[in-house]
Description:
Blueprint: H1 2-21, E1 34-36, E2 44-46, E3 51-54, H2 65-73, E4 78-85, E5 91-95, E6 104-110, H3 117-135, E7 139-145, H4 147-159, E8 167-174, H5 190-196, H6 203-211, E9 220-227, H7 240-243, H8 247-252, E10 257-263, H9 276-287
Parallel strand pairs: 3-6, 3-7, 4-6, 7-8, 8-9, 9-10
Antiparallel strand pairs: 1-2, 4-5
Helix pairs in contact: 3-4
Keywords: Signal
Protein name: Lipoprotein
InterPro entries: AB_hydrolase_fold, DUF915_hydro-like
Amino acid sequence: xxxxxxxxxxxxxxxxxxxxxxxxxxxxxxxxxxxxxxxxxxxxxxxxxxxxxxxxxxxxxxxxxxxxxxxxxxxxxxxxxxxxxxxxxxxxxxxxxxxxxxxxxxxxxxxxxxxxxxxxxxxxxxxxxxxxxxxxxxxxxxxxxxxxxxxxxxxxxxxxxxxxxxxxxxxxxxxxxxxxxxxxxxxxxxxxxxxxxxxxxxxxxxxxxxxxxxxxxxxxxxxxxxxxxxxxxxxxxxxxxxxxxxxxxxxxxxxxxxxxxxxxxxxxxxxxxxxxxxxxxxxxxxxxxxx
Length: 291
């Protein structure tokens, strides 16, 4: 009986060790990229490049709070810092950047969360100036939902060539009304718009046309739009055509652009950043070493 218990104990220890070993981070040294592997998931590239999450109109800490938490629980990234930007561009910080290769996430909150995209673009710049001065950050990623995506692209068009700021490596826009709220005309398909750009061009889109040359071609872009049904080509707020409107414009500028259409009721505008499929897509685009 004692011998049988000893065998069971040895087997239990062996199984426990095997199950936990796959989640350990591989230490590759200070000058290399660290990689972690999680079950049923491609290897995740770990760097010290911060990813900034920019909320939409009337957004707050809850807007991206769930996605940030889920990405952290999955072991893909780590929330390290919250930056709140006042109307005059002053920064209040909660937390700090560690400098560790843990895919740090930075949540950016606008004190005036209903202001316009031009002021928000200036506030994004203020956040980047702070990161450069306080933490010597040289590169970042941007993730914006709705107006946060609009303001992020506005920032890139205004300050994309400013060498004094951290360079943007990757930009994700989720449900962003780049062509305002113009829908695809009856004579145009979404496929054609992706290739050639929209037929009807809003004032916002035309301004993007004027500033797109300022966006470095090295910025990789991911556009995500929602489609509620076969007859409702929108996320209930932003037309699908508008969320994908800048695909051709950025592609012609030399940027590598990916697009994704999220379908069904979970593609509703305010649910896009709560959608687990969107979590997966964002994580893959930003951090996975294999696709």
